[in-house]
Amino acid sequence: MYELIFFGMYAFVLVAAAIGVIASRNPVHSAMFLVLAFVASSALWLLMEAEFLAMTLVLVYVGAVMVLFLFVVMMLDIDVKSLRTGIMRYAPIGIIVAILSVAQVWSVVWLRNSGLPVMARPAAAPADYSNTKELGAVLYTEHVYAFELAAFILLLAIIAAITLTMRRRAGLKVQNVAEQVAVKREDRVRIVKMEAESD
Question: What does DSSP assign to residue 63?
């Protein structure tokens, strides 16, 4: 009973925050509503006994990605009025996406009430059960090659991004560290002796 009450509360907060992301006129307010939506989603993950996913959602998205979003939004001078001039041209696509989303949620509710064994509620886990431990055991045994491949692809993407930023371009001043380290005092400072002048 209490689970349904908390689920309804967090689901209402999540839907309200998602609407706030779309309807807010200030980009910073939209980002803050998105943070609230992520936190409500992590609370729903906790209700489903997926503590690791909830913690990852808060740490990765709220703690890293949203901070990056806020930096980008606050550093860029975004003209909000020009962005909202052609907003109605996206209305048909938005309505189609909304209808599909509602249909998917309704189908899940209908299947849950249909009594099929596939949608039966699983038994509650014991108190000493740790899904983080089980997820780590599966990730580093059965799916270790896929995990290492994903890590290698991410490392390759980081190296490619650094390589693209360090490429030679015309008219770009490049810092030569070797010349700066090898410079002597006589090359930088010149002492000039002048005769004293009186007014």
Answer: I
Cite the beta strand spans of the chain per DSSP E. none
Quote the CA–CA distance of 29 and 20 in Å, as a whole number: 8
Query: Count of alpha carbons within 13 Å of 13, Cβ hemisphere only?
Result: 16
Judged on CB neighbours under 10 Å (0-12, 13-18, 19+), 7 is middle
Q: d(Cα 20, Cα 38) in Å, to the nearest integer? A: 13
pTM of the model as a whole: 0.59
Contact (CB, 8 A) for 65 and 52: no
Domain ranges for the chain, please list them. 1-80, 129-165
Contact criterion met (CB below 8 Å) for 153 and 145:
no
1-80 has CATH 1.10.3720.10 classification: no
pLDDT tens for the chain, 199 residues: list them.
Answer: 677 888 889 989 999 999 888 888 777 788 889 889 999 999 988 888 788 888 888 888 888 777 777 777 776 666 666 666 666 777 788 889 889 988 988 887 787 777 766 666 667 777 777 778 888 888 888 888 998 999 899 899 888 878 877 766 677 677 788 888 888 877 777 778 888 877 6
